[in-house]
Give the backbone structure.
Amino acid sequence: MRRKFRKILVTGGAGFIGSAFVRLAVKKGFLPIIVDKLTYAGDLARLKEVSGKFKFYKIDICDKSRLETLFTREKPDAIIHFAAESHVDRSIKDATPFIEANIRGTQVLLDIALKHKIKRFVHISTDEVYGDIEKGKFSEESPLKPNSPYAVSKAAGDLLVKAYVRTFNFPALIVRASNNYGPWQYPEKFIPRAILTVLKNKKIPVYGKGLNVREWLYVEDCALGIWQILERGKIGEVYNLGSGYEEKNIQIAEKILGVMGRCSEGIEFVKDRPGHDIRYSLSVEKILKQTGWRAQTSLDAGLSMTVDWCINNKQWLFGKWEEINKLYK
Ligand SMILES: NC(=O)c1ccc[n+]([C@@H]2O[C@H](COP(=O)([O-])OP(=O)(O)OC[C@H]3O[C@@H](n4cnc5c(N)ncnc54)[C@H](O)[C@@H]3O)[C@@H](O)[C@H]2O)c1
């Protein structure tokens, strides 16, 4: 089949979701170009199974002159923009890196992409830009009402992208994904942190009463959805990407204990996150109608694969334990 794009550039390709997308792009026969600053969250180990099948540039997306040199040399025609500071709790401690990477970094990248006449720019955003919802689902038309500094920085990125579409006819699309989980997720995030904690024979910390609801999307399903949007999405449009698998945090913790063969005494309720969003939920009618994509992995199957992966990659996970304890002390 004739390819729509010659060269794909992936920002944040050493991160959790970006690396899943790079592995998929390699499977599809591409030689992706990765731009990543390798912050604490970036790790090339995530790409060892596709080693030699991508090009890597350690560049901060805020560094306009190094990006300019890279674009002149590589001439990418599609960009998938994952690079971001991604952890809500860190944004509550210090919002500065979030404003810098997620807003200024996005603007710098947009300017370079515009100048180099990129054919397609897929901006990866989050369901958190809509704020929370007690009943019903967010559609792509729902207003942006972000609550955490992280969510605000992502919403600002979305608005910048929309402004470039409108002002410059820039060929961008926006993807708003729900909570991802799966292999290689940094264990500051709820699911891998819970598994790591159990592996360390400690109780799973659960915020408040554990009643907050998230919609859990297996990372490989997310990568496939983004691929569909890259190939078949309409320029200027926003696409929600959710799984329909909604669960309270307490139930996720109990499921993990079940899969790992531990009992429910292994949970510890801790002081709630300030401003904690109660529930996210996405309507995925649009992507389903336009591309036929829907999540393939059930929550139970995904959790079980994630637990297996964590057990088989204990060393990588255990290497983050001290850093996680510092973050949550
Ligand atoms: N994880 C989720 O559940 C989720 C859900 C919806 C949307 N998203 C969005 O998807 C994207 C990827 O999320 P993730 O979970 O893979 O994040 P991650 O934290 O695992 O990875 C982020 C990557 O970006 C890189 N990076 C950070 N700042 C950079 C900069 N200034 N220049 C270049 N590289 C930089 C990091 O080194 C890392 O490799 C983010 O934009 C995030 O907002 C994530």
User: Anything to note?
Assistant: The chain has twelve helices and 13 strands. The first helix runs from residue 16 to 27. Residues 11-12, 14-18, 36-39, 41-42, 60-62, 82-86, 101, 105, 124, 126, 154, 177, 179-180, 186 surround nicotinamide-adenine-dinucleotide (CB under 6 Å). The chain has a mean pLDDT of 97.
